[in-house]
Amino acid sequence: MIVTRDSIRVGVPPMLAYEHLVRFIEFPRYLSGVLSLTPLDSKTARLVLDIGGRRVEFDAVVTEAEPGRFVRWRARDHSEVVESFWLEAVADEQTDVVCVTEVDNSQLSLFGEVPEVTLRSRLRTDLKGFKRFCEESAARAAEGEAADEPESR
């Protein structure tokens, strides 16, 4: 089994980061290689990915969640692929996001000739995309709130 771990600090509170992690419909906005995504229910989505030029399809299922603190999903058709996220509040409405991806040896062919390097690179890219998405979403929300405030006279 290959286990890849990476982390990033995101400029949003933990609950907001959590909400983005469990909204499957947002995945294509920050995950690399998503060709299509179809929500099946509140905890399951059908993903079609391009991984190293290969088309891979599976159902992602949220198997454990603790709002604002933790999310784990597993690929239903490839139960040997698991991704877990831990969220920890830090000063000034920021969150440290730690992600661990586990891929069983039987599924390594999904990730090309050098799966460890591909997984590590993909995880880093996806965490950077998640950070950008969360912070841009928060900035747009703040701008919208500011526009809704009445002018002082």
Question: What do these coordinates show?
Answer:
It is a single chain. The protein has about 150 residues and is of the alpha+beta class. It has one domain: Alpha-D-Glucose-1,6-Bisphosphate, Chain A, domain 4, CATH 3.30.530.20. The protein is built from two helices and seven strands, in the order E-H-E-E-E-E-E-E-H. Strands 1-7-6-5-4-3-2 form a seven-stranded antiparallel beta sheet, covered by helices on one side. The longest helix is centred in the C-terminal third of the chain and has 34 residues. The protein starts with a strand and ends in a 5-residue tail after the last helix. The mean pLDDT is about 85.
Explain briefly what this protein structure is:
The protein has 153 residues and is an alpha+beta fold.
Q: How would a textbook summarize the main sheet?
A: 7 strands, antiparallel
Tell me the domain tally.
1
Level-2 CATH architecture: 2-Layer Sandwich
Q: CATH H level: which superfamily?
A: START domain
Q: Name the structural class.
A: alpha+beta
What global shape is seen? globular
Strand order of the largest sheet: 1-7-6-5-4-3-2
**What is the number of E strands?**
7
Defining key terms:
alpha+beta; 7-stranded antiparallel sheet; single chain; 2 helices; Alpha-D-Glucose-1,6-Bisphosphate, Chain A, domain 4; 153 residues
